[in-house]
Amino acid sequence: MQNSFYFKGFKQGILTMARKKSKFFLVLATGSLLTIITACPGGVVTPTFVGPSAGATGATGATGATGATGITGAAGATGAVGAIGATGYTGYTGSNGYTGSAGTSGAAGTSGAAGATGATGATGASGATGATGANVTLPVIVFTDPSNNATGIAVGKSITATFNKAMNPTTISKTNYTMVGPGTTVVDGDVSYDTTSKIATFKPTVDLLPNTEYKATINTDVKDGLGNSPLTNFTWTFRTAAIAGLAPVILSTGLSKFAVIAGSTVTNANATTVTGNLGVSPGSAIVGFDIPGGPGTLNGIRYSNDATAIQAKLDLVSAYTDATSRVGVPIAISGNIGGTTKVPGLYKSDTSLAISAGNLTLDGQGNPDAVWIFQIGSTLTTTSGFNVILINGAKANNVFWQVGSSATIGVSSIFKGNILAAVSITMESGSSLEGRALTQSGAVSLDAATVTLPTP
Predict the structure, then answer these.
(1) Three-state SS for 200?
(2) Could you tell me which of 422, 420, 366, 374 has the C-alpha nearest to residue 395?
(3) Sign of torsion, CA 334 346 250 197?
(4) What is the pLDDT of residue 154?
(5) What pTM was computed for the model?
(6) Bridge partners of 287?
(7) Quick check: 181 and 187 in contact, CB under 8 A?
(8) What is the DSSP letter of 167?
(9) DSSP single-letter state for residue 397
(10) From CA 445, how far away is CA 453, in angstroms rounded?
(11) Which of 69, 275, 309, 320 has minimal Cβ neighbours within 10 Å of its Cβ?
């Protein structure tokens, strides 16, 4: 079969023909376009293109019709991460808008007319001046026994407080006058008030504990006769003696300097000698010590109802109250105690007491601090020539005779101790006293007697 070919646009040098084993080959130059038109009826021409190298890329052809969807090919490898794009430029801030013009102010309104001023009111009448208030003296505690922070106080002692003015006795009660110790333990006791001395007394029902601190309180519910009360509660503390022995009656420093104190007068006849201070209050008479050289000799200072004498009398009242208020288990005595020996302790006679059938001996048992307190309901008398004798360390300074009325020291009797009498003391001719003659209301009468302050 003979085939013929027509080559449109054939150019020399672009297409050549070769034969190889009865087959013809067209060789197309790179970058040339070949159009094949066959004129072989019934024949089939299968062209085979052979080029020595790839030709230049042809122009893009028109877009063909969409072909059928092909089979999905295998996923390609993940592309590399693209580089981070550069930061864009910051945009410019827009210009501020123009401020609008202010509106025109409205016209001011017309002011109203001022109202007329009201008439001034009449001045009110002045109130009447109030009456001048009375000059009120409030109750105050001026003295306590024991004093605040005192130590070595007897376990059997009563606790006293002296007011500056008379109080309403009904307000001095266990409710308003209290004591505690040790700590907050309430101490039971009886409370009394003496209208004459203005002294309130707390007497414990039983002895206090040794070497223990106690606190006494008088509150603001106590009142004077006008119903006035202290501004604040009054409180003071003290500590009892280290041992449960009997403590001495407390004589203040001022009182302890007096050998003789009387309430009305001090009288002397004949050659009496007093060593120590001598005073009288509220009376003022001191007789028998005025003439130089006799008859009485005073080796001390005399005080006649002045401030020193008045204070000493107040201290005497406190000491007397201390002696009468000692509690515990006193040794009962009565009648005549002459011819006996007494060891240290608290002794009590509800009536009179005498030293008349022999001497009374007080045995200190080797203790220089031994104390004797004799509570006598009425009188104390020594018969002429009978004495009080101290042995084994006993001291006159530690002997206390609390006498409910009057004491009489007989002719030539030698007496020892501190006599605290409610009414009077008489020392007969030739008698002597180592101690103190202290009386509250009456006289101290001396006749050729000797009174000497005791050795502490």
Answers:
(1) strand
(2) 366
(3) negative
(4) 76
(5) 0.52
(6) 267
(7) yes
(8) B
(9) G
(10) 17
(11) 69
Which helix (H) or strand (E) is 362 found in, with range?
Answer: strand 360-363
- What is the per-residue burial (b if ≥16 Cβ within 10 Å, else e) of 56-88? eeeeeeeeeeeeeeeeeeeeeeeeeeeeeeeee
Quick check: bond before 368 cis, omega within 30?
no
Q: How big is the CA angle at 387 (ends 297 and 366), to the nearest 5 degrees?
A: 105
Gap between the Cα atoms of 271 and 205, Å rounded: 48
> Pick from 212, 207, 204: which is nearest to 239 by CA?
212
Total number of residues shown for the chain: 456
Residue pair 177/202 in contact (Cβ under 8 Å)? The answer is yes
Q: Which residues contact 259 (CB under 8 A, 6 or more apart)?
A: 274, 275, 276, 277, 278, 300, 436, 437, 451, 452, 453
Per-residue pLDDT averaged across 25-35, rounded?
52
Q: Please identify which residue in the block is written with the tokens 């004591």.
A: 179
- Contact residues for 170 (Cβ-Cβ < 8 A; gap 6+): none
Residue 287 three-state SS: strand
Task: Tell me the two tokens of residue 379.
Answer: 């009188």
Which pair of tokens denotes residue 437? Answer: 């003659």
CA terminus-to-terminus distance, the chain: 180
Q: In what order do the strands lie in the sheet with 141-145?
A: 141-145, 159-163, 199-204, 189-194
Measure CA 195 to chain center.
35
Q: Which residues pair with 20 in a beta bridge?
A: 23
Domains observed in the chain: 1-51 (no CATH), 141-240 (2.60.40.1220), 255-452 (no CATH)
- Average pLDDT on 321-342 reads 91
Q: What is the pLDDT of residue 87?
A: 54
CA dist 217 and 281 (Å) reads 31
Tokens 């609390």 sit on residue = 402
Question: Kind of pairing, strands 444-447 and 265-269?
Answer: parallel
Using 50, 70 and 90 to split pLDDT, how confident is the model at 211? confident
Cβ proximity of 400 and 373 under 8 Å: yes
